[in-house]
């Protein structure tokens, strides 16, 4: 069997999921705005340090992939390298089988063929509303790696921290560890993987989880991952937005952020990108 080539992950990642919030028209104009050089959001020269990715709904992956190709062609025409790619496209889920009689499901091979590099798996909403299990998520992660894509696995405790901070951290790490271990056991050791630490109680709220809690849980998750040949990145998600990364923020604790509502306006994305670039010394 031919060996699989995986995407190369940079130091920091900023991923945006549109969940099911946008019309197709809004998604495509948003994608164009993200890539528009005038908006100063994607900087291909910083690619080794910071990479952005958009995870639209299934219907808009194809048009977004076409927009991305146009953008890359312009870069190549102006003499800018697109290897490694300056921007990633992702999917919000996939089936654990490659093809077959699975009505309503989406093949990881089809997702790959459209140009996606990342597949988000096991999001809290898929677990709570659609009953996705750890075992299913792990199988989907294996199917994602088999296509040479990167699984973006969401983990996070359900209950908000109580009065004793250390107990809350231990409980959160223990809850996250179950899926982290299941996924790592299912994927090749050399496959890159991204874990998004998203405390369920902090998703869809006005404010994110506290920096100290996130930093301690992420450290615990890194301990569970341990050392492995493939790259592993741990991001934070859950009401993340401008102001969370810089001084006294999450920048020192995590490998990036997974953005939802606070990335719906391009200005919000620009602010977050700037904060990360400043911390990396590439602003
Ligand atoms: O679930 C999330 C990203 O997948 C976070 O969403 P919000 O930032 O809208 O809470």
Automatic annotation (TrEMBL):
GO terms for biological process: gluconeogenesis; glyceraldehyde-3-phosphate biosynthetic process; glycerol catabolic process; glycolytic process. It is an enzyme of class 5 (isomerase). InterPro entries: Aldolase_TIM (IPR013785), TIM_sf (IPR035990), Triosephosphate_isomerase (IPR000652). One of its GO terms (cellular component) is cytosol. Pfam families: TIM. Its EC number is 5.3.1.1. It comes from the Eukaryota. It catalyses: D-glyceraldehyde 3-phosphate = dihydroxyacetone phosphate. One of its GO terms (molecular function) is triose-phosphate isomerase activity. Pathway: Carbohydrate degradation; glycolysis; D-glyceraldehyde 3-phosphate from glycerone phosphate: step 1/1; Carbohydrate biosynthesis; gluconeogenesis. Belongs to the triosephosphate isomerase family. This is Triosephosphate isomerase.
């Amino acid at each position: 069997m031919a060996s699989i080539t995986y995407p190369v992950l940079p130091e920091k990642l900023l991923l945006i999921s549109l969940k099911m919030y946008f019309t197709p028209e809004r998604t495509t104009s948003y994608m164009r705005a993200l890539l528009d050089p005038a908006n100063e959001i994607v900087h291909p020269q910083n690619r080794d340090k910071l990479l952005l990715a958009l995870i639209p709904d299934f219907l808009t992956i194809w048009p977004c992939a076409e927009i991305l190709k146009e953008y890359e062609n312009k870069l190549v025409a102006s003499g800018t390298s697109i290897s490694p790619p300056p921007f990633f496209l992702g999917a919000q889920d996939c089936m654990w089988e490659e093809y077959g009689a699975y009505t309503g499901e989406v093949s990881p091979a089809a997702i790959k063929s459209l140009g996606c590099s990342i597949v988000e798996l096991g999001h809290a909403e898929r677990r709570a509303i659609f009953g996705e299990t750890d075992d299913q998520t792990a199988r989907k992660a294996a199917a994602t790696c088999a296509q040479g894509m990167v699984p973006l696995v969401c983990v996070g405790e359900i209950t908000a921290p109580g009065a004793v901070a250390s107990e809350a951290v231990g409980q959160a790490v223990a809850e996250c560890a179950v899926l982290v271990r299941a996924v790592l056991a299912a994927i090749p050791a050399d496959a890159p993987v991204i874990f998004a630490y998203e405390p369920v109680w902090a998703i869809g709220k006005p404010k994110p989880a506290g920096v100290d809690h996130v930093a301690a849980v992420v450290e615990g998750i890194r301990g569970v991952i341990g050392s492995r040949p493939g790259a592993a990145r741990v991001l934070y998600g859950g009401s993340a937005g401008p102001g969370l990364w810089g001084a006294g923020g999450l920048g020192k604790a995590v490998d990036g952020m997974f953005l939802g509502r606070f990335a719906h306006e391009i200005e919000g994305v620009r602010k977050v990108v700037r904060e990360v670039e400043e911390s990396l010394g590439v602003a």
